[in-house]
Amino acid sequence: MKSENGERRIYLDNNATTRCDPRVVEAMLPFFTEKYGNSASRNHGFGWEAEEAVEKARTQVAAVIGADAKEIVFTSGATEADNLALKGVAEMYREKGDHIISVPTEHKAIIDTAKHLESLGLKVTWLPVDKEGLIDLDELRRSITEKTILISVMAVNNEVGVIQPLAEIGKIAAEKGVLFHTDAVQAVGKIPIDVNAMGIHLLSMSGHKIYGPKGIGALYVRRRNPRVRVSIQMHGGGHERGYRSGTLAVPLIVGFGKACELAAEDLSSGEIERVRKLRDRLLDGIRARVPESYVNGSLTRRAPNNLNISFAYVEGESLLMGINDIAVSSGSEDLAHTSIRFGLGRFTTEEEVDYTIERLSGIVSRLRELSPLWEMAQEGIDITKVNWQGH
Ligand SMILES: Cc1ncc(COP(=O)(O)O)c(C=O)c1O
Predict the structure, then answer these.
(1) Is 254 helix (H, G, I), strand (E, B) or coil?
(2) What separation in angstroms does the CA of 302 have from each of 187, 342, 359, 374?
(3) Of the four, 9, 54, 173, 334, which is 20 to 30 A from 196 by CA?
(4) Is the CB of 183 within 6 Å of ligand 1?
């Protein structure tokens, strides 16, 4: 894709956010200009058509996770959905217990919310993950106590794309009578999600990670077997069955609904397989052309759109500068190692993948030619054992 000034720009940061699909934009537009009613206005057609559109979207959102429309609470995004799930459960089930189980590799929306609850006196167990990024189910089982009210484990990790064993967690949660929340922001449209088959009680989603608009998301709250309740975090006019007050963002909700419909199609139409093939092409290309590159996280239990690779003996800033026409996300590990997250998506082409392999391999070799560390490594010197001070 070309930028406004005609320069080449490749977007491989689809785990951070995605381009709004033109079909989503088209669905939204009338709700800014002609159908601008308040969905809570009961006395006229403007209100009714807005409400009808919101309810259609609610059905579309519910369908992509196998839920009922009545179980969807619209929020401003997944951060708010995560907050509502954790704080809402902690408050609502305070009498039952004060213990939550989560994972240190969660998104900050979960980590910081759980830490806040910790500061209020709740106990949080942080389950470790193995080198593949996965939790240990026996350890999860052992961590559950009489006081445990909630397990919150993300479906797909935003950095390395690792898929946690959701159905198994759901089974343990059911056995022990504990609620199971999952942040499924990176999972929707990438892997099949079914709240019933997986025993999920609460689930967070976001519009802008699935080619929908920014600023809209939802919390799924199970209504049957068992009926789950969360205490209100946003008081006001009683919208969303009282769970989340505030005039509904009708255009965003319509766009989010359309995005969910398209996300479900991606799974059945072969689109996500196309993305997986491109991801594998990128991986094969990098492996063939760049020695000392290592995949972070499980390759087998991984969302098809994500690749996260560490490049040894290259410094992060220089690498990113060298590929500045390709948008990726980087986590510098130390001076000598850089990890890059490649998030592929619906608009990624084979040509872009090939260009990325070419650019990346070129830059990494050039940087390594300039690197004394690389030279030392080639000579068989273990750089971790070098005494840099010289005494
Ligand atoms: C796993 C995960 N959870 C939550 C969020 C936050 O979502 P939102 O931007 O809709 O608040 C993100 C996005 O950064 C994410 O990747």
Answers:
(1) helix
(2) 10, 13, 25, 31
(3) 54
(4) yes
Contact 252, 28 (CB under 8 A): yes
Residues 281-299 have pLDDT tens digits of 999 999 999 999 999 999 9
Tell me how long the chain is: 391
Distance in angstroms (rounded) separating the CA atoms of residues 113 and 105: 14
Q: Over pLDDT 90: what percentage of the chain?
A: 90
The owner of tokens 């609904």 is 257
Whether residue 282 contacts residue 355, with contact meaning beta carbons closer than 8 Å, is answered with no
Torsion of CA 312, 316, 321, 322, to 10 degrees: 0
Ligand 1 centroid–CA 329 distance in Å is: 15
Is there an atom of ligand 1 within 6 Å of 78 CB? yes
Percent of the chain, pLDDT > 70? 97
Q: What is the mean pLDDT of residues 223-250?
A: 97
Give the pLDDT mean for 189-193.
Answer: 98
Q: How far is the C-alpha of 10 from the C-alpha of 347, rounded, in Å?
A: 10
Torsion of CA 214, 247, 34, 24, to 10 degrees: 20
Locate 70 and state its tokens.
Answer: 């009545």
Domains belonging to the chain, first-starting first, are 22-267 (3.40.640.10), 270-385 (3.90.1150.10)
Residue 235 exposed, middle or buried by CB count within 10 Å (0-12, 13-18, 19+)? exposed
Sign of the torsion formed by the C-alpha atoms of 204, 208, 211 and 217: positive
The model's pLDDT over 64-122, given as tens digits with 9 standing for 90+, comes to 999 999 999 999 999 999 999 999 999 999 999 999 999 999 999 999 999 999 999 99
Q: Mutation test of ligand 1: which of 15, 18, 205, 206 has the most ligand atoms closer than 8 Å to its C-beta?
A: 206
pTM over 0.85: yes
